[in-house]
Write a structure and sequence with these properties.
Elements: H1 2-15, H2 19-26, H3 42-49, H4 51-71, H5 89-109, H6 122-132, H7 134-151, H8 154-174, H9 183-200, H10 202-210
Length: 225
């Protein structure tokens, strides 16, 4: 169990890297949390500072999720890491991957390095899904792109994409008879992470309902801090 604690802590620390804050300070643009939406996430950077810095932040946050769900669990070499499922170590490993991914998302949302005030976890959560379920990730990206292009709301695209992941798993496994390794674990996890994304976007949902949500109409940045 010591190895499990090690990879969970490591995943949390990787997720806690405050990419947007670091990037904006390197760009001599101040603290991103004091401008725009006040959120330390890639979308706020994209809106305030333009597409180059914004895309770089989003990609790095995505990499954090991939590292946590795919690479960091490989440090965990115990073939039977969890006591409740010793007969199926591969399922156990899937659980370890999920736990590491969740730790990274928590790190991104409640970052240790910025007074526990980070982003909303979308990019890091997407990276975690990419490491665990690349097909579902691809579908989610497609849905995000369509929703964003039609509405120009990043928040709406993010919410719909997060909901698409567990639904895609269910459809592939039950309608198309695709055997997804660790399906019964992954689908509940995906549903949980979708609920977390919806929770972190609760203010965006309120603004969407009121018609006051900000649209991302330009990738050039609206103003410099």
């Amino acid at each position: 169990m010591e190895n499990l604690a090690l990879v969970l802590v490591l995943s949390y620390l990787v997720g806690s890297i405050p990419t947007s804050i670091i990037a904006t300070k390197i760009a001599a643009a101040g603290d991103i949390r004091k401008f725009g939406s006040g959120n330390a996430g890639g979308t706020n950077v994209l809106r305030m500072l333009g597409w180059k810095i914004g895309v770089a932040v989003i990609l790095f946050d995505l990499i954090k999720g991939v590292a946590a769900s795919y690479y960091i669990p490989q440090i965990f070499w115990d073939p039977n890491p969890l006591p409740f499922n010793n007969a199926t170590p591969f399922a156990d490993y899937t659980v370890v991957q999920i736990l590491c991914g969740i730790a990274a998302v928590f790190g991104h949302i409640w970052t240790l390095f910025a007074s526990f005030k980070g982003g909303k976890g979308v990019a890091t959560g997407a990276g975690m899904i990419l490491g665990l379920a690349p097909v579902e990730f691809s579908v989610a990206i497609g849905i995000f792109a369509v929703a964003f292009l039609l509405s120009r709301y990043v928040s709406l695209g993010s919410i719909l994409a997060s909901m698409a992941i567990p639904l895609t798993m269910i459809v592939r496994e039950n309608l198309f008879n695709v055997e997804i390794r660790g399906y019964h674990t992954l689908v509940y996890f995906a549903a949980g992470i979708s609920l977390l994304i919806i929770f972190t976007h609760r203010e965006n949902i309120r603004r969407l309902r009121e018609g006051t949500e900000n649209k991302l109409m330009s990738f050039k940045g609206t103003k410099r801090p």
